[in-house]
From TrEMBL:
This is Glutathione S-transferase LANCL1. InterPro entries: 6hp_glycosidase-like_sf, LANC-like, LanC-like_prot_euk. It catalyses: RX + glutathione = an S-substituted glutathione + a halide anion + H(+); 1-chloro-2,4-dinitrobenzene + glutathione = 2,4-dinitrophenyl-S-glutathione + chloride + H(+). It comes from Paramormyrops kingsleyae. SUPFAM superfamilies: LanC-like (SSF158745). Its main location: membrane. The lineage of its organism: Eukaryota, Metazoa, Chordata, Craniata, Vertebrata. Keywords: Cell membrane, Cytoplasm, Membrane, Metal-binding, Transferase, Zinc. It is found in: Cell membrane; Cytoplasm. One of its GO terms (biological process) is peptide modification. Belongs to the LanC-like protein family. One of its GO terms (cellular component) is plasma membrane.
Amino acid sequence: MASRALKNPYKDYDGTPACAQGLFDDKGRVRSLQPAPLTSDFIGRLRAKVTELLSQMENGLRSADPRDCSGYTGWAGIALLYLHLDSVFGESSFLQRALDHVSRSLQCLTRRTVTFLCGDSGPLAVAAVVYHRLGRSQEAEECLGRLLQMHESVVKGKGNLPDELLYGRVGYLYSLIFINQQFGHEKVPSQYIQQICEAVLASGENLSRKRQTQEQTPLLYEWYQEYYVGAAHGLAGIYYFLMQPGFGVGEERRLRLVKPSVDYVQRLKFPSGNYPPCIGDSRDLLVHWCHGSPGVIHMLLQAHKVYGGDGYLGDALQCGEVIWTWGLLQKGYGLCHGAAGNAYAFLALYKATGDLKHLYRACKFAEWCMDYGKHGCRTPDTPFSLFEGMAGTVYFLADLTQPLRSKFPAYEI
């Protein structure tokens, strides 16, 4: 881990007002889930940096790939950022920018990949929401209809469709959830979501039987012949969705199938508190949202909500210690494998516990991100994109202004 991280220069939170000076107001002395105790000065710094980085991002996007429709590195991701900024700040210009970018995305759909982040369902879902907010209901319904046309092929797993988040069933599932969250009601009928969860459960049971791992984990999933553990391609990301209430999994199967599978991932923990990228990989190297503690933590916190006990919260807190020590990455400031994505783990812990230590740590990672480009980090392949680049950092800084409402984009429910 040390070879991939930069030294954390910040003093940790000690509970005193002096420690959090400039970050927390007087309410910050109370450990409770109240309206976020951030000072107006710090929120102003966040907003100013959002404005500054948006200008740099828009200039940089002039040379971006015009054919990349995706949420991960392409135009749909930029549209999602502006849609989020509209929700946080309520400025009409952001919604217009979202429309501009998602319109570009709709012109270059893959016509083969179905997920929110790497395929066509993301652009269609984002476009449906943008049109909905603009009052253009006919266009919103058209995008929604095209999104739902994919449903049958996803349930049936056509083309050897995997189950993971970036390229598989769960990635399409998120698109439907996104629609319902953004529309504020059950725009997508619950049976659509339930049928996908049924297919994911059946796939996991089948592979577990095939590999004879039922006693270890009743559900097993692979991607490119590897048993990935993390949020992007692996078990933790899939189990996080299967534990969500209202998705039709039901209490019996959450206890019989999902819980022992979550417990299996829990047992893969390294002595450090971090998690391997794949089952059987003994290298304790990666502290990324995509591979490692910053993604697994969301599974653990959801397990704590659903099942209680069994040390899920304790292991999540240990993940937080790993991220605080090793989470400022040489790879940069992005969401998938950077400081902004890692900081969402602190926000998740803050929402789960009310302990201001975690909000303080998120603020310190934000201060690191506000010194964007000054740490000698690697320049990503798509330096202005949502999941690799600057757009994701902007998304996080905006989210931090309302930490109790924050959610890791395209993942956290």
